[in-house]
Amino acid sequence: MAHTPAVPVDMTAAVLTGFGGPEALRLQRVPVPVPGPGEVLIRVAAAAINNTDVWTRQGAYGLPGRPDALAGWRGPIAFPRIQGGDIAGTVVRVGDDVVGEWVGRRVLVDPAIYDRPSDDANPVGLLGSEADGGFAEYVTARADQIHDASSSPLTDEQLACLPIAYGTAMGMLERGRLREGETTLVTGASGGVGLAAVQLAAARGARVVALTTPDKSDAILDAGAAAVVHRDGDPATTAAAIAEVAPDGLDAVIDVVGGPLLPAVLGRVRDGGRWVIAGAVGGARIELDLRRLYLHNISLVGSSMHTPAHFRRLVDDAVTGAIHPRVAHLFPLGAIHAAQEAFGRSDYVGKIVLTPP
Questions:
Q1: For the chain, which end, N or C, has fewer CB atoms within 10 Å of the first or last residue's CB respectively?
Q2: CATH class for the region spanning 177-302
Q3: pTM of the entire predicted model
């Protein structure tokens, strides 16, 4: 039996006290959580920052019929809340009814809270949003949310890059049925989800056309893109540039941008192609000629995060070393405000990762 390490009574955590600016996020001493039945306690080794963390703090998700209402991604948030859905660490305690020898194992945590116990379950909550997350020294998670990553060649900081960004990208690729040899366009390719999609699509043998800015092109090519198209303010110009590097059309589009680019580029998608969308930073409302969809049997697929089956495939890629997440910057947990400020500047490629004391 593994030795159970000593666990302190309290810990440092970044606690979200309500919706607002950076002042709503406070470093505090709080009790170390106790794992309940079916749960484990994890000593956090690294936790990455996502748009979800910032948008949840800002209450930027709105509500049905009330787009300007302050809300988390699934609605109300119970404050105080410890944020952070990207978690890698080591199991130090287990609760009752946990099967297996988990203490001492390095794990990657699936941050999704699912609607049912099924391989194709839908995420209806998230660690760091609907439950406390990993911007702390310790976090609890259900035993069925943790995955053994002890044999992965990735560092803890690299593992922490995976759950939300790479999980979301994996969900998009799986729902878009992307296959080896196909040509896919990845929008927003320098962002967390976009870069993950480039790496994951290239790893499965797809030809990736990436949409990004000129200053980040080399990093995107290094990540596995076959061609880069520079983002232009005019969607028609961007569509023409995509046509030059993909003259035979696109089998799939992995889109985290949305906005007017969708109707402008839809005509470049082959018959039977798929357009998968998981973001709307380019605009949430568009005008679309539906004939371009049904006359060409094109599927328009919404994708929010991943399923348990998608996440297991992601862990397999992490264990085999098929992907190599890029850590752009490391910050100690105590510098979380500086980390979120750096995150907001978007002048980097990769992920920003926090390490607890």
A1: N
A2: alpha beta
A3: 0.92
